[in-house]
Design brief:
Elements lengths: L1 H5 L11 H4 L6 H42 L10 H40 L1 H6 L5 H31 L14 H4 L5 H20 L2 H22 L7 E4 L19 E2 L3 E4 L4 E2 L10 H10 L2 E9 L4 H30 L2
Helix pairs in contact: 3-4, 3-6, 4-6, 4-8, 4-9, 6-8, 6-11, 8-9, 8-11
């Protein structure tokens, strides 16, 4: 009774101590890296949340319009004027998403190590008990985690917004950088390569401003090269019309509306392909038919890549970009053993 009136029983005090209620917190090198770059990290996280919220709002507005319009029973192409404001919202968002790898490469990747090397923080860290490899791994790991979380979130939310009209609104080219580079694994791979490439440039140049300028050129060049080889990731499908007699009007084969088409061609009896500018100099229909008969044109063919290949193309391209990123990480650790400080 005395124990009950004057205080808790034995062991009860330990159950309510501040240590038991204390939440896990960052410590050591992880805390140091987060503290160094917390402004950039929190800015990226906040921008991701705001952009995601905007996309969710825009999708809600679009779905309300589609439901009122009668989609998908009524084709969306017939409501092009009414749908224009919603298409414009896509354009504004894709502009920012396509620029994300460049911005993060310049503003986050380039100063990641260059700032420490320039102001002497790297020498201070090297004088402590922490190894260079641990410093590198923590910096790259924490930065990579923020980048992956950001790009995965934005990619998933944007794909969710686009998915209801992906196969019906033909004015959006899925092979364009505005859609191919902002969905699936591609934005994650592109951004990681841009950020870690910028980090490597900062390690070599050791000056923040110079590294940012060079990284800007690197990330822009990366976007250009990636855009040049993007279509090479797909398997081209060829559709050929039924052969007709030479001189007979040619009917081009039909292809899916969402497919990315290449320039069509005429097909001769021997299987040779001719451009559509063949016989265009003829002034009359009779002269045109005679010219096509002499050229032995018996049909037409169209090369295209169907939208069903989009996911496979994205993962194939992303795997190449991830491999390049891994190579940069290996370079950073090799360089860091000898020349980082």
């Amino acid at each position: 009774m005395h124990a009950t009136k004057n205080g808790p029983r034995h062991g009860a005090r330990n159950a309510t101590t501040p240590k038991a209620a204390r939440r896990p917190r960052l410590s050591g090198m992880t805390w140091l890296v987060w503290h160094q770059h917390r402004a950039a990290f929190w800015t990226i996280i906040a921008a991701t949340v705001l952009c995601s919220a905007w996309i969710v709002y825009q999708r809600g507005q679009m779905m309300d319009f589609l439901d009122a319009y009668g989609f998908p029973t009524k084709p969306l192409q017939d409501a092009e004027t009414e749908f224009k404001p919603y298409a414009g919202a896509f354009t504004s968002v894709t502009t920012g998403l396509t620029a994300l790898p460049v911005m993060l490469g310049v503003l986050l990747g380039a100063p990641l190590f260059a700032g420490d090397l320039e102001n002497g923080t790297a020498k201070l860290i090297a004088a402590q008990s922490v190894s260079r490899n641990r410093w590198l791994a923590t910096k790259l790991g924490l930065t990579g985690l923020v980048v992956v979380a950001t790009t995965v979130t934005l990619s998933a939310v944007f794909a969710w917004w686009w998915s209801p009209i992906k196969s019906d609104y033909l004015h959006f080219d899925w092979t364009s950088r505005e859609f191919f580079n902002t969905t699936g694994a591609v934005p994650v791979a592109l951004t990681l390569l841009s950020v870690f490439g910028g980090a490597a440039i900062g390690v070599v140049l050791r000056r923040t401003l110079v590294a940012m300028v060079v990284t800007l050129g690197f990330t822009v060049a990366l976007q250009v090269v990636w855009g040049h080889f993007r279509l090479a990731l797909g398997d081209i499908v060829t559709a050929t019309s039924k052969p007709v007699s030479p001189g007979t009007p040619i009917v081009f084969p039909k292809v899916p509306g969402t497919a990315h088409q290449f320039d069509p061609s005429y097909v001769t009896g021997s299987g040779k392909l001719l451009g559509l500018d063949t016989c265009t100099e003829q002034q009359t229909d009779q002269a045109l038919q005679l010219c096509m008969k002499k050229a032995d044109i018996v049909g037409a063919s169209v090369d295209y890549i169907p939208i069903s290949q989009m996911s496979g193309m994205q993962w194939l391209g992303a795997s190449i970009l991830f491999a390049l990123t891994a190579g940069i990480v290996v370079f950073l650790f090799i360089w860091g053993r000898k020349r980082l400080v």
